[in-house]
């Protein structure tokens, strides 16, 4: 392994933090979905790093599962975005607060 | 520093730059999606450096090739303009976002140094299509089959949601 696992996990944590901040602070629904993708990728990176650390390929199987879940999530999420835009002419989450409280 | 380590830190810098570019770009959603492509490709390179060759290829094919294209299609389809968005979300959510980042960073600085020992020596062919395929179709066969159900459900859900009217 070229670099210590600590550095891989630090990169993973940094990317997850960026994604979390984006998902919490942005209003554009599409950017929020992209931030969620970034968080899933950070988790994938941690899984690949641990898989390499212990020489066990199971971590990479988990990554494949996460990729499938991410693809499913983004498909349904973008379907919701299109339905929302058709009904409200907006992709701003502040305008889609019908179920909030 | 070995060549692989140089490449790792270069890819890491690209990935972080792409992530920041996506989150901080409030004007142009298409540019944000392209920043996400940069992050995905850089992470594919990191996976190859970590000897997860098949996952690296799938990362580029599925994320950079399919998922981001889906995002771009929707952005184009909706024809969004930068002025359509008001000021960014204020108050509670912004404070919460910064707090999450700060707590995570503090935990990493505190916990990470020296947390892991030396890496194990991986078996022959580790991370290639043969090793991953054998594990996927023997030990994890049930999980693999269940993902097909998940994809079917997502496909039906997307069609129902995006369809104009359901007879």
Could you explain the architecture of this structure?
The complex is a heterodimer of chains A (101) and B (167). Chain A has helices at 5-25, 29-54, 58-88. With 101 residues, chain A is an all-alpha fold. Chain A has one domain (5-91): Orthogonal Bundle (Helix Hairpins), CATH 1.10.287.3510. The model of chain A has no long low-confidence stretch (mean pLDDT 88). By secondary structure, chain B is mainly alpha-helical. Chain B has helices at residues 3-24, 29-49, 53-78, 92-111, 129-138, 141-162. In chain B, helix 1 runs antiparallel to helix 2 and helix 2 packs antiparallel against helix 3 (53-78). At the A-B interface, helix 1, helix 2 and helix 3 of A face helix 1, helix 2, helix 3, helix 4 and helix 5 of B.
Keywords:
heterodimer, A: 101 residues, mainly alpha, Helix Hairpins, 3 helices, elongated, B: 167 residues, Four Helix Bundle (Hemerythrin (Met), subunit A), 2 domains, globular
Q: Can you lay out the helices and strands and say which pair or pack?
A:
The complex is a heterodimer of chains A (101) and B (167).
Chain A: H1 5-25, H2 29-54, H3 58-88
Helix pairs in contact in A: 1-2, 2-3
Chain B: H1 3-24, H2 29-49, H3 53-78, H4 92-111, H5 129-138, H6 141-162
């Amino acid at each position: 392994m070229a670099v210590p696992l600590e550095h891989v996990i630090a990169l993973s944590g940094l990317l997850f933090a960026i994604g979390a901040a984006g998902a919490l602070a942005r209003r554009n629904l599409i950017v929020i979905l992209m931030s969620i993708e970034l968080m899933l990728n950070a988790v994938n990176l941690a899984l690949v790093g641990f898989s390499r650390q212990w020489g066990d390929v199971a971590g990479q199987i988990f990554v494949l599962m996460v990729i499938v879940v991410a693809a499913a999530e983004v498909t349904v999420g973008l379907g919701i975005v299109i339905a929302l835009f058709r009904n409200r002419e907006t992709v701003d989450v502040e305008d889609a607060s019908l179920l909030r409280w | 520093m070995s060549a692989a380590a140089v490449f790792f830190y270069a890819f890491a810098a690209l990935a972080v730059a792409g992530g920041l570019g996506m989150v901080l770009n409030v004007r142009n959603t298409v540019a944000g999606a392209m920043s996400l492509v940069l992050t995905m490709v850089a992470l594919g390179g990191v996976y190859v450096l970590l000897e997860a060759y098949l996952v690296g290829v799938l990362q580029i094919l599925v994320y950079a090739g399919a998922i981001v294209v889906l995002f771009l299609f929707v952005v184009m389809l909706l024809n969004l303009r930068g002025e359509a968005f008001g000021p960014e979300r204020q108050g509670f959510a912004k404070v919460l976002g910064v707090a999450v980042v700060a707590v995570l960073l503090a935990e990493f600085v505190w916990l990470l140094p020296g947390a892991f020992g030396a890496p194990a020596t991986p078996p022959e062919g580790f991370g290639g299509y043969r090793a991953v395929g054998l594990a996927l179709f023997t030990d994890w066969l049930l999980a693999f089959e269940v993902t097909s159900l998940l994809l079917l459900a997502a496909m039906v859900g997307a069609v129902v949601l995006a369809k104009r009217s359901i007879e």
